[in-house]
Amino acid sequence: KLATLRAEIDAANERAETSEQALKQLEDQQTDRDQELISYQNRIRRLEDEAQMREDQLDEAKQFQRDNEATLNESDVLVKKVVTLEERFDDTESKLREALEKIRAYDLENEGLQRTITQHEKDKEIAEQKYEEMKEKYLASKGELDETIKMLESM
To answer: What percent helix, strand, coil does the chain show, rounded to 5?
Structure first.
């Protein structure tokens, strides 16, 4: 009977250790997900900054075009500058579109990661609950074992 109780205690200890390892893994995964989320948020900020820079460049190009149109008298020079500015405008506009598309893609990916994080948090809570249950069972088993040992010692 004592060997059975010891085996149960050993099994309970083993289950507790397994639960602790599972909890540690979940915590490590959560940390990795948090770091990945921060990385994506930084990427989004950089892309937003780049989009703002492109918009500023676009505004500068437009202002440059307006300034040149006001000051140039010769039509050939004016046409050449306008074509150049339109090309720059088109390039900047396409880069801006690409940046906005990247931001949208990162936003979607970020939402997916948020859902994953939420699921991992739920899984972590479940694992913690199981751990607590196993801990309570372990403590109860330990108490019973202690009582049994006291009874055997008193005999």
So the answer is: 95, 0, 5
Rounded distance, CA 89 to CA 60, Å? Answer: 10
**Helix 75-154 to helix 2-71 angle, to the nearest 10 degrees?**
170
Rounded Cα distance between 6 and 148, Å, is 11
Residues belonging to the chain: 155
Give residue for tokens 């040992």: 149
Q: What is the pLDDT of residues 52-96, one digit of tens each?
A: 999 999 999 999 888 776 665 567 677 888 899 999 999 999 999
**Residue in this structure with the two tokens 């006001």, named with its chain if needed:** 70
1 by DSSP, 3-state: which?
Answer: coil
Which residue matches tokens 């307006």? 66
